[in-house]
């Protein structure tokens, strides 16, 4: 098996893949632009953030499996892969706790304005009055949009903080909500209307693009918190900016529309950055999650070697 790894992967995973008989090219510095030239002799391509375009897939004449070392597969041109009969596998659930932890971090940071306060301290400014009022979380309603593994993990931490947790997702039923100990919301607007904190955990796709838009923001309470650790395109950025200005919505974001690639340095929406608490799409970036993902990648390659079929997707 010729395996091209185009993003970081742990040393132990590289050793394990070699032990499976794979011949490894480890090139974690490759960009999406480099990938079409690099992929020609690879049978298996492993990526995390590097985008896999239709061109890359066309040029990968020997490709039979693409593994996304993460949960979402929106960085891969699935149409082209499927038209060429190339399998695409992901690692669902393996970074759920890491992303949930960051979602909670952003919620607290947005409520307490931790980033703004730090910036003032760095300028030598002490401003206890300005930062002296926050909503607090205990007894407040945390509404989860999207109850996959990350949404459920976030709900559990919210409960541990004493929050009342409600949820909406397309497939959520009253029975499931009861089983997971969350309040069932029959519509996304209803879910938004009761939220003190709205935490978004949706996969990217045509049906979720800009799902969190004007209608949802209009339903939210003034001054409520919105956190997105899922995919940037799920939130309509223009509508969010408007809601921040007109309703005092406090936003904590880890993902953005037109997000830079992993190796790019330019963040183009400084306007938005000035209005939010933000991180750099690092939800899954903990040692624990990286190890869990790396082990899953090895498991997928092993299963593929033995059966010709991918796990997942
Ligand atoms: C995921 O899809 O699991 C994450 O977004 C991974 C990443 O950091 O790119």
TrEMBL record:
Keywords, comma-separated and alphabetical: Amino-acid biosynthesis, NAD, Oxidoreductase, Serine biosynthesis
EC id: 1.1.1.399, 1.1.1.95
Stretches of the chain forming a coiled coil according to its record: none
Biological process annotations from GO: L-serine biosynthetic process
Domain of life, source organism: Bacteria
Pathway(s) of this molecule: Amino-acid biosynthesis; L-serine biosynthesis; L-serine from 3-phospho-D-glycerate: step 1/3
Transmembrane segments: none
Keyword presence, NAD: yes
GO MF annotation terms: NAD binding; phosphoglycerate dehydrogenase activity
Name listed for the protein in its UniProt record: D-3-phosphoglycerate dehydrogenase
Full-protein positions shown: 1 to 313 of 395
């Amino acid at each position: 098996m010729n395996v091209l790894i185009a993003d970081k992967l742990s040393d132990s995973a590289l050793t394990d893949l070699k032990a499976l008989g794979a011949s490894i090219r480890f090139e974690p510095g490759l960009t999406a632009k480099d990938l079409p030239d690099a992929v020609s002799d690879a049978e298996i391509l492993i990526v995390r953030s590097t985008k896999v375009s239709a061109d890359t897939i066309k040029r990968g004449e020997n490709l039979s499996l693409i593994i996304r070392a993460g949960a979402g597969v929106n960085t891969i041109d699935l149409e082209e892969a499927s038209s060429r009969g190339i399998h695409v596998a992901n690692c669902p659930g393996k970074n759920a706790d890491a992303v949930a932890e960051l979602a909670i971090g952003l919620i607290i940071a947005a409520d307490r304005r931790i980033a703004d306060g730090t910036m003032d301290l760095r300028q030598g400014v002490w401003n206890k009055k300005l930062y002296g009022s926050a909503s607090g979380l205990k007894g407040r309603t945390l509404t989860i949009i999207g109850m996959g593994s990350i949404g459920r993990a976030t709900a559990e931490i919210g409960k541990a903080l004493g929050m009342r947790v409600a949820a909406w997702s397309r497939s959520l039923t009253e029975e499931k909500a009861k089983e997971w100990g969350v309040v069932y919301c029959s519509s996304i607007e209803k879910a938004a209307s009761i939220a003190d904190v709205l935490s978004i955990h949706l996969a990217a796709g045509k049906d979720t693009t800009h799902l969190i838009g004007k209608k949802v923001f209009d339903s939210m309470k003034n001054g409520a918190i919105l956190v997105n650790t899922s995919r940037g395109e799920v939130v309509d950025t223009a509508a969010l900016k408007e809601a921040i200005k007109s309703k005092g919505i406090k936003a904590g974001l880890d993902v953005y529309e037109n997000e830079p690639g992993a190796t790019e340095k330019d963040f183009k929406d400084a306007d938005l950055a000035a209005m939010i608490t933000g991180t750099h799409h690092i939800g899954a970036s903990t040692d624990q999650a990286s190890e869990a993902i790396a082990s899953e990648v090895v498991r997928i390659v092993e299963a593929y070697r033995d059966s010709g079929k991918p796990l997942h997707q």
